[in-house]
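2 proteins. here.
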Amino acid sequence: MHFVLHFILMLCFILLFILGSFFFLSYFILESEMKSDFARVSEEYLDLAITIKNGKAVINKSIKESIQKKGGWLQVVDSKGYVIGEYNTPKELPKRYSFTDILSMDLNNFRIHYWILEKENSSEVTIIHGEPLKSKQILNTLLRSNSFPNINTDFKEYLVKNDAWIQIYDASGNVVYSYHAPPNLKFTYTEILSMKKRPWNSKVDISSYYFKEKDLIFLVGTYNPYYSPDHITDSIISASFLKSFLIVFGTLIVFAIIISIWYGKKFGKPLLYMMKWINNMSKGNFMEPKDKKGRVPILNKKGSLHKRYKIFKEVVDSLYTLSKTLQQNEENQRRMEKTREEWITGLSHDLKTPLSSLYGFSALLASNQYQWSSEEIMEMGRIMKEKAVYMSELIEDLNLTYRLKNNALPINKEKTDIVSLIKEFLSTFSTTTEAKDKEIYFESAQDTIFLEIDLKWFMRILDNILTNAVKYNKPGTKIKVKVESNHQRTIISIEDNGIGMDEETVKNLFNRYYRGGNTQDNDSGSGLGMAIAHQLVVAHGGEIVVESQKHVGTIIKVVFYHKNDV
């Protein structure tokens, strides 16, 4: 979970960085356009570059430098007409504009540009920009002279001094007068309108005046200091874009390298270590890998998890658990193999003994050297039958335990009174040879207890547990079979005051390959009885609980849960 959260946070950071880079790229391009010609600045850039704080406009440094460079000025007017911000503004400009002031604004010597911005709370501000217009200054000088509409010598000298020219056009568009103008210069009205609409695309700066009395147009022109045609501006913007793109791209590359190194150190190294650990475990080495100095890299000097690996705490804990489980499984496997070998050895011995008897008696019967009496033949036949039955039961037990292990044994349950059933079983079991020297008695607080059981296998459970109790205990041992039941479960307890079992024997009591430590006095069993009993109880949906203490006795509780109360 920590790793996923960390990854999501890092992904968000990268996305924010990319978005910030694109924002920087866009801002840089807009600023380049503004610096090339302020008249072409976009509303988006002005919205970012001019902020309103406490009712006052704050103009950024780049705008001021661009305006100062061209000798222009700027005012910020709110929706009520008040000037809330200005820079390099002529003294004659008002601090508040009326409705008509804004619409009739036509300052001498300046070309005016407007932008409307929408700020917080949907309020609008108007940006007014004026840039010096030399042609207009010259034209106004002419209009103020006493000789107008005539062009006198003083004005001609003024034109030459300011590297300007004048042309006069009639109603037909013909040049009726020209002074200091380039040869063959003549404009159409579309060219004049185009230069007024996009003055930055023209090399000349023009201003015109309509002399109504004679229906003439006075056109004054000079060098255009704002000349920056679209293709040049586009080149500047493209260069700025390339520059800013390279900056952003280079920053992203550096950032990616730093992130890669950081991730490699923070995640790569721990992941490689854990992969090495898993690889070692696949080869049977379950201990955590150590470095050249014999230290465990994931642990600090205090023995706790190193800071670098804390994000992988769940994985490391799982690896420790897996390592411990694999070690335990390997130990269990070795113990199981050892027990299996011992069991096979014992089973081989148990089969070898009756086989030896069968072989010996069959050899005697087949021999012609002796004449056996009918009594002797009958006795040898009885012994051979007994040994064959023992071998058959041994093989059946082995087959049964494997069927139970693979859930291949059908359990046919029917509702049965187990009190009367156990009483009947004990009356028969008490007469067996091994049970005659034991005191067996039954106890139940209820006269009848009905339970869903498979009669055949339930009897086998009782027989195996009681056989085990009488087989390995001394004569005179008291064995009590007690039955108690409630609405949740039925418990059958087999208690004895015999020799008891140690912890190891109790732990392995239901292992089908295990023979307990008390079998030295009687080793004729197959070691499958208790394993079969346990598997049959589980097949009935129950469980067996064993409590035993050496030289005190043993209590085995067989618990059967009622339906829907497990």
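next one coming up
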Amino acid sequence: MRKYISTICMLLFCVQMAQSQVLITLLFGDKLNSDKIKFGLEGGMNFANVSNLETATTNTFFNIGFYFDFKIKDSPNWYLHSGVIVKSTMGAKLAPYSLEDEALDALFLNGEVDRRLQYWNIPFLARYKFNNNIFIEAGPMIGVFYKGTDIFTNQVDGDDLQYDNKIKKQNSLLDMGLEGGIGYHAKNVLHGLNFGVRYYHGLVNTSKIENANQKNTSYYIYVGLPVGAGERAQAKKKAAAEKKAIKAAEKAAKRIDKGKKGKKKSNKN
């Protein structure tokens, strides 16, 4: 029961984060979008693990952030995808280990450990979009670590037990690795919805523990939602600007025409 409640709380937290970011992007989305820059929200699920960590198995998390797609020169196919995944959790599921406390070790002996490593992840992915709107992408991703917790849980005599062991000091500030993926750009859905899958493989040891060589890995399933001036909105904006320019040109032409007629009349006189 506790697991279901925790999952619901996590979903509500993600929704709250999303609502806050949606409000920000709705306020500034039009200013951030242009013909060469697309801005929006991106989020989904990731399946993370930590290599070279005994008993570690895959753990499932939610993530959310914002993105920028920068058009490279005037090419309709090449983009630089970047942004910040502000809620991005790495980690793994572990078997219980000693907490250097006999009472706690006895309570959680048959339980499990949920390792959560909180990062701000910043990808820099070169994206190539084919004419059928399928795209591939690859590049580095940098992670800034800010919080680490091992959550011990167990059920004893019908009671749910939990102990949070802070492990921030055991981890390095920065993570860095390579990420690649494939996705689809649904041009006519919600002004240009993107969805796809990615895989991240860490290249640096993120642990400060002596002789450890722990690296983050994660699979991502994500959806990217343009905010503010989406593709249709950009097209309307461009059409309105063109229409305004045509009217301005027509007015200017009329002024010039009137000026010419006025000169002809003065010459006749």
